[in-house]
Structure formats: C-alpha cells, structure tokens
Design brief:
22 strands, globular, D-amino Acid Aminotransferase, Chain A, domain 1, binds glycine, five-stranded parallel sheet, single chain, 14 helices, binds adenosine monophosphate
C-alpha cells in the first residue's frame, strides 16, 4: 500500500514509525513531514496539507491507496471531503464530522442530544450577555473560544475579572472567527484522562488510555501547554471505565451524528474529567492526541495500518488492535519561551549518541519542532522532541525516558522532571 500521512508533529512521526512496520506498506509519504519522518519515508514539504485540492492532486499523482490525517486543521478545512469526492480512501472525518472538535458549541449540542455527561454550558456571541452570565456564576470560571484556537482558546480561572476580560477578548477577535462565540461552562474538578477510538460505520473500537501533563512546570504549575509529557497504561483507568465510555459517550455520539446524516470515520479523542459525580466529557477532538500518540504507538503489537485501511474502506468488522504489557513514558523537550513565544533555530545535540547507546530500543525519539539545515538538526517549534522510554512498568519506562533526555541538549531546553513520577497531575 502507498500511504500519504498528513501532518508534521510528534504525533505524525509516531504514527509513521508504526505504519512503516506494517507488512502491507509499500511506501510512506508524509506531507509536510519533518526530519524524523524523512528518515523513515518520503516527505513533501511544499504542499499545504490544509489545502483540499492540493492534497487530492498529491494523492492522485502518487497513486495513494490511503490518506491518514494527523492534525485537526486539514479536517476542519475539508480535506477528507475532497478525498472522498475524488474516491481516494481516507482515514479522518469529514468537515461536518470534525465539527465535534472545531466547534465546541456543536460538540455540546451533540452531547446534550445524545445524553452524554458533560459540564453544563451556554454559548454567547454578545459580550454583555457573556459578562452577565459570568457575574451570576461562582468561580472557578471556564471560558472557551468556540472554534479551533490551537489549544489556546480555553481559560480556567478563579478571577471573575479575568474571565470577563477573556470572553471579551475572544469575542473581540483575539482568535479570529474561532472566537466569534464563546462557551461558558461549569467548572469540573478531578483527574483528566484521554480515551481514544478508531471509528467507522457507526462502530467505535477503543484504544488504550493515556494521561497527558498539560501544564508547563513540575507539580502542575505554569501555563497550559499542548502537553509536556504523557504515559500509558493509566492504572486508574480500568476496562470498566473504557467500556462505560464506549457505551455512554462514543456510541451515542456516533449515533446522534449518524441521525443527522453525518458519518464519522477517523480517530475520536474523548477528553474525560473523572469527577466525584462520575466521568464527564471535557472535550472531543477529531484526531489522536499529541503527545498521547507517542506513548500509544510503541505499545501496539498488531498491524495498525490493516485496521485503518479497513476503517476507511469497509468498516471495523473482524478488526482488532492488540497491546503489549510494556509501559511507555514520553517526556517532551520544549523550546525556551514555550508556550507563549518560543525561540527557535538552536542546534540539537546528543541524538546520535542515543541511537548508539540504546540498541535494545528502550528509548525512542519522535521529532516535532525540528528542521534539517544542511545535515544539522535545529529546533523549529515550541515542542521540539518527544523522548519515549519503554519498560516493564511505568517506573522503568520513566527511568529510560529520562536517561534519554539527559543525553540530549539544545539552548534553553525546557522539560518537566516529574512526568509519570506521580501518576496524576493533581495527586491528593
Ligand atoms: P478543552 O480544550 O476544552 O479540553 O480545555 C482545555 C483544558 O482546560 C482541559 O484539558 C482542562 O484541563 C481544562 N478544562 C476545560 N473545561 C473544563 C471544565 N469544565 N472544568 C475544569 N477544567 C476544564
Ligand atoms: N495532548 C492534548 C491534545 O492533543 O489535544
């Protein structure tokens, strides 16, 4: 099979790493890809993955058998729709289906109609009405830009004033049209967990869960980020919780969408808060998580490509994903200034020593914000590298991850030292 993988981050490098292990794979092309993906396949850096007709043209000219979409932006731009129209198999939801992520108010509407437990919320496009609602509430306040804001559109705060200023800024254009309405919702307390599905033809096949550390600094302090580290498996998420999520969240959501004529084929990411009143959905994403993918892919022992091909063509009947008992821990190495204003262009050293030192494969490095300049690897984004340790348990995987981290350096490198030390972001 000839596969086109869209995206350029650590998630896509991990997906690509898994896909090239498939006996079905003939060729992997990544667009735009990154230097890590360039080591394991071909990359097409000069085609915009968010441009539906450019992606169709690339897939046609390369005789692609399956397109796999990593990030949300091509989905929201309608890339899957254009591929379906051109009869090119694609694993990734259509624009209408991807609204589960690209419009928080739409996701809330679907959840309400499908009876999915979630925080009570209302949507506002008027500043004054938003401010009045916030004044009526008790803190902490949760205010979300409705549309895609690269993970930056959500504010959780104890300050009424800050919440009003945030709603005002969103509605005033801070996130462009993504903020032309805001969702204000009740604050939920608890531990978060990410549960993933492969969805097709109304069916949802669960993957194993992972827990992401969203804050920049040790102990859960500092700004919210895209994710500073991750681990899997997650001991406080048992099979019962996954079954509960399948029955009470994933399947009713797909059925509600189907009832509106919207088929959902692709990964579905369910962000759950485990509250004292039971699990509640924080958000849906129409893709896999990053860095969650980096700890899930090394734990899959079966052929993922076979499942994604089936999902994109005929459905999930007869398909399974099998898992190793190994644990995986990912420590993200980020640029100085991340997440607000990362500075980039620094030389990354130590990766080669890691490849020589780890012949047994207990450390994997997935690249994200990197750039190859005449054979030298430079930093080029906020999150630069994912160092993933594997081991018989989380403790061993964690040791291997940090052993890897300590071999790598670049100017101003930031990372958390407590990933998977406590298995929760907010331990009691
Ligand atoms: P979202 O993009 O909607 O998942 O929000 C980003 C992050 O904000 C989540 O991962 C949570 O940490 C936090 N968050 C979102 N909604 C709530 C809520 N209702 N209560 C508490 N925290 C929340
Ligand atoms: N790790 C969070 C996300 O991918 O949205």
């Amino acid at each position: 099979m000839r596969v086109l993988l869209l995206g350029a981050g650590g998630r896509e490098h991990a997906l690509g790493w898994k896909l090239v292990q498939s006996p079905m794979l003939e060729r992997l092309i990544s667009c735009p890809g990154n230097p890590g993906l360039a080591e394991i396949g071909d990359v097409v850096p000069d085609v915009d993955p968010d441009d539906p007709s450019a992606v169709v043209a690339l897939a046609s000219s390369e005789n692609i058998d399956l397109v796999i979409v990593g990030p949300e932006s091509p989905l929201a731009a309608g890339v899957a729709d254009a591929l379906i129209e051109a009869r090119i198999p694609v694993f990734g939801p259509t624009q209408a289906a991807a609204r589960l992520e690209s419009s928080k108010s739409f996701a809330k509407e679907i959840m309400a109609a499908a009876g999915v437990p979630t925080a009570k919320s209302a949507t506002y496009s008027d500043r004054e009405a938003a401010a009045i609602r916030l004044e009526e509430m008790d803190g902490p306040y949760v205010v979300k830009a409705d549309g895609l804001a690269a993970g930056k559109g959500v504010l959780v705060t104890d300050s009424l004033e800050a919440a009003i200023v945030w709603a005002d800024a969103c509605l005033g254009g801070r996130f462009g049209t993504a903020g032309s309405s805001v969702v204000i919702e009740d604050h939920l307390e608890g531990e978060e967990v990410s549960i993933f599905y492969i969805c097709a033809a109304g069916e949802a096949m669960p993957l194993q869960p992972a827990r992401d550390y969203k804050r920049l600094l040790d102990g859960g302090a500092g700004s919210n980020t895209g994710g500073m580290g991750c681990f899997s498996p997650v001991e406080d998420v048992n099979d019962d919780l996954i079954d509960w999520t399948t029955v009470n969240v994933a399947l009713p959501t797909l059925a509600e969408m189907a009832g509106r004529g919207i088929d959902y084929t692709g990964f579905l990411y369910v962000g759950l808060m485990l509250t004292s009143d039971g699990p509640m959905v924080l958000e849906f994403n129409s893709r896999l998580g990053d860095p969650e993918t980096e700890v899930l892919m090394p734990r899959i022992t079966s052929d993922l490509l076979a499942v994604l091909k089936a999902a994109a063509n005929e459905g999930l009947t007869g398909q399974t994903v099998t898992w190793s008992d190994q644990a995986a821990v990912d420590v993200v190495l980020a640029s100085p200034g991340y997440p607000d204003s990362p500075t980039t262009g620094h030389l990354i050293s130590g990766l080669e020593s890691l490849e020589i030192a780890e012949p047994l494969g207990s450390v994997l490095v997935f690249q994200a914000g990197t750039r190859d300049v005449e054979g030298q690897l430079l930093t080029s984004g906020g999150r630069v590298l994912n160092v993933v340790g594997l081991g018989a348990n989380i403790g061993e995987a964690r040791e291997n991850a940090y052993a890897g981290v300590h071999r790598i350096s670049f100017e101003g490198m930031q990372f958390r030292t407590d990933i998977a030390a406590q298995r929760k972001e907010h331990p009691e």
